[in-house]
Amino acid sequence: MSVDRADVVVIGAGVSGLSSAYFLAKAGKDVLVVDKGIVGGEASGRNGGMVSERVDEPLLIPLAVEATELWTTLDEELGHPTEFTQEGRLQVAVTEAEMGDLLAERDVALRHGIDVALVEPPEIRDMIPGITERTLGGLFFANGGHANTQLTVQAYAWALQDLGGRLYQNTTVTGLRIVDGRVASVETTAGDFAAEFVIGAAGPQTGLLAELVGANVPVAPARVEILATAPVELRFPIALVGNGLYGHQAVRGNLIFGGGAHEWADVELTASPGKPNTPLIRNIARRLAELLPGMADVPVIRSWAGVVEQAPDYRPIIDILECPSNYVVVTASAHGFGISPATGKVVSELVLHGESSIDIRGLGLDRFSGVGRGWREERGWSPVPQRA
Amino acid sequence: MESRPLVVVGAGESGTAAAIEAARAGVQVTLIDENPIPTAMAGLNVPQFFGRRFVSTLGNKAQMLERMTAANDALAEADAAGVEVQLGTCVWGAFRNSDTSRVLEGPQLGLADHERSWLVKYDRLIVATGARDVGVGFAGWNLAGAMGANGAHSLIHHYQALASRRMVVLSTGNLGLRTAEMALDRGIEVAAVVDVSGSARGERALTAALRDKGVKLYTSHTVREAVGRDGEIESVVLVEIDDNCEPVGGTEKEIVADTVCLAIGLAPNVELPSLLGCDLAFDPELGGYVPVHDDWMRTSLEDVFVAGDVAGFHDGMVLDAEIARNQGRLAGVAAAKSLGAIDTPKAVARRNDLKATGTDSKPYDAYSHWRRWLRALLNVGGPDVFACPCEEVTRADLIDLRPPRFLNRQTERTSRPSLKALAKDAPVNPDQVKRLTRAGMGHCQGRLCREQVALLLADASGTDVADMPVMSYRPPVRPLPLRVMWPHDEPDQVRNEWAKWFSPTQQVLG
Questions:
Q1: Is A194 exposed, middle or buried (0-12, 13-18, 19+ CB in 10 A)?
Q2: Would you state the pLDDT for residue A156?
Q3: Residues of B in contact with A54 (CB under 8 A)
Q4: pTM listed for this prediction
Q5: B496 contacts chain A (CB < 8 A)
Q6: So what's the pLDDT on residue B406?
Q7: pLDDT tens across A15-49, in order?
Q8: Chain B stretch 463-492, residues whose beta carbon is closer than 8 A to a beta carbon of chain A
Q9: Contact list, B38 vs chain A (CB under 8 Å)
Q10: Calculated CA dihedral for residues A296, A298, A303, A309, nearest 10 degrees
Q11: A285: nearest CA in chain B?
């Protein structure tokens, strides 16, 4: 096997890894990305494409706000289209309890200077033609939006390659060689790659990958589902959250909505997890028809599932390990797509300068010092037993 | 949830034979067929390539049911054997537990009629879903009047509803020759049968019979374009090709016709085996990816059997329906045996009676034939013809990996890597290309274009088409309106426990 080298080796060709790779290549680093599958083959290419300021998770607001700003020029930045549409994000309430949540989120948003407004049902019906009469109110975030997931992740990849970065698809990591407390090289099915820095951005496999270097990165994989309808005349460019669903109408016209329960799963380091749908898609279809009764005749033409990962507190992890000291952990707890431009910027700054210009307090590994290796079982975040 | 000992999907030759066989062995059988299909779907070429060449009575479900039943004596036989027959019912999903999906009560199908959907569990499943038309593109193949041989057969035999006066048939072989013969029998004029090959394929007797009836055969020819106003085909321009599939100058001839029937070939409808995770293997002589099965027609899943065209289609099967029927009977016996309805010696004896499993005499490699058609059409029609008509993706869009037309392509830096770069590490993945270009992402979910897309990608990237992964199938495998998919049987618990996006500690509800 050949031994090649790069300044930075990124493991995982999803949005977080490729965005990090892009910003590092832009800063002049020789970057190489490996993935056991294809670009965006896992959660990065199969999520709902939502971009938001994450008011639901105040610790993430600085990162998410930076991301929404970067999104506005991302097509030009990368030189390839992402289908990003920034016409806002509307969260509607159909129950009193949800209305209470919206009011609380509005207060948080206002405290952080985020452009947000409460909207009344008549206004909601103007914004989303065909929406249910049952909404009690909504919260409109002017800077929210949506993008095409596969185009976006491929845009990062092509932009990286435009800068001379290398990309090895269908290349599986088989080991990490540690010398003197640093990862000396990444061993793969395409040969070994020596590196100054290694970035583990392996989505649901992030925890298993970290185990190779003896680190405990607590993430639990889970399978989630989403569906798409046939394209119909464009009615609303706004990203929409409500009735237990999140989604949008794509520029092409398809309604793409997901939601509902997830299923905890186990994954393997070197294999792509199965991503079947279940009859849950009927329940999603029902909620979409309830939310948009004016579009109940639109046919569903496809559904898919993705395996995402969650940290115990539902927040991303962006940190450099103490040992090996050149290993960066990046995982986004199922919210990686929207924040991806900022994630890449932060990771590149961590690698280049050891610190980030964006406030990422609360996203480090130190918050899990009390989390033991049996945490998934303790929480009930393990897969249910296989039926006979 | 309802449960059935044996569900047979597809009431064609093989499925009906399977149902009868199993019922006579004492199994309680449910036979499901999606015909008659909703007209809205028919107009979108789903599930069959009808090319909008059907009469309006197709929308009269009662009348169509009557015609279907009248056209299929075996259905009456199945009924007499005690088979529960559900027509007008499609199977849009197939679900079973796996490593990452563990909460189902057992293997189950998603069913729907024109109004509502439901789930049904099964102990054994026989998939007899047939084959579909393979599409290859020429200018104008998105106009009304471009249809498939299988679609024409269905409109004639199931529905008596084919609305065509003058037809050009693309490709000889038994499929094309039989389609022409069938059209003539129904009083449809056949203006030409065209083939890129230098001589007619298929049974000589069929060719001779067509010649006797005055049908002109154009060998070493292809279609340059179909032309017409108001979205309807009015004529077809043929052109002669040389041995390298290049057009011969000055040989164009315009033929008046309202229909172009593509009879290039059929590909097995493997949606349900694929959803269930049955092993599929690529066999170019059987129409591409087919479910791996043993000599009992059992797939890699012990409770799932296949029979008929879905198990692999070749041109010899067009003339001998007994091949498909025998596969059906064998699957019926095997299912009955595995349910304990008959003992093994009896089943083996019956299998010996049936003998033929029908895949031993394949006339030719279908994929080579399709590739030759595609090469000729590409040479004659150029790169700007739609590869995927649903999403209007041209061949050039596809092989240059261009983003969809509705996006502003001006923002690109023009350094886009080629397909070859994408193919550097592993065979090109049609799912990856699909998401970038939208080819195969329309209403028909690649039913019409997936072979063509695979061949174009294979040729452009220097990949063997046999090495390319299958473009994925996902539920619903039939377009299903939200209000139909709506689970009227949803328990209250689902609403009470519905998770907000990644709110804590939810498991999927059963």
A1: middle
A2: 97
A3: none
A4: 0.96
A5: no
A6: 82
A7: 999 999 999 999 999 999 999 999 999 999 999 99
A8: 474-476, 479-483, 485-487, 490
A9: none
A10: -50
A11: B482
pLDDT grade, residue A386 (50/70/90)? confident
Tens digit of each residue's pLDDT (9 = 90 or more) over B42-69: 888 999 999 999 998 888 889 999 999 9
Q: CB contact, 8 Å: B445 with chain A?
A: yes
Cβ separation A251–B407 shorter than 8 A: yes
Interface test with chain A among B105, B501, B503, B509, by most A beta carbons within 10 Å: B501
On the question of pLDDT at B505 being above 50, the answer is no
The pLDDT of A63-89, averaged and rounded, is 96
Residue B506 has what pLDDT? 40
Instruction: Please state, in angstroms and rounded to a whole number, the distance separating the CA atoms of residues B177 and B88.
Output: 30
The reported pLDDT for the residue numbered A388 is 63
pLDDT value of residue A2:
57
Instruction: Name the token pair of B420.
Output: 């070859």
What interhelical angle do A149-162 and B430-437 show, nearest 10? 100
Structure-block tokens of residue B66: 């009557």
| Type of residue at B357 | T
Give the mutation candidate from A301, A307, A377 for the B interface (greatest B CB count, under 10 A).
A301
Chain B environment of A310 (Cβ under 8 Å): 502
Note whether B149 and B261 are within 8 A (CB).
yes
Q: Please return the burial class of B450, using the count of CB atoms within 10 Å of its CB with bins 0-12, 13-18 and 19+.
A: buried
Give the closest residue to A20 by CA, choosing from A363, A352, A305, A315: A352
Among A78, A84, A80, A85, CA closest to A19? A78
Quick check: A53 and A192 in contact, CB under 8 A? no
Q: How far is B402 from chain A (nearest CA, A)?
A: 10
Whether pLDDT at A327 is above 70:
yes
Beta strand A191-200 pairing with A3-11: parallel
Q: What pLDDT does residue B508 have?
A: 36
Cα–Cα–Cα angle for A203, A204, A210, nearest 5°?
80
Task: Please report residues of A whose CB lies closer than 8 A to that of B505.
Answer: 379-381
State yes or no: cis peptide before B476, omega within 30 of 0. yes
Helix (H, G, I), strand (E, B) or coil at B462: coil
* Inter-chain CB proximity B487 and A223 less than 8 Å: no
- Between chains, do B406 and A251 touch, taking CB under 8 Å as contact? yes
Which residue among A168, A229, A277 places its CB closest to the CB of B425? A168
How far apart CA A32 and CA A9 sit, in angstroms, is: 5
When comparing pLDDT for B421 and B104, which is higher?
Answer: B104
* Chain centroid offset of residue B139 CA: 22
Interchain CB contact of B93 with A (< 8 Å):
yes
CA B314/CA B49 separation, integer angstroms: 19
Q: B99: exposed, middle or buried (C-beta count within 10 Å: 0-12, 13-18, 19+)?
A: middle
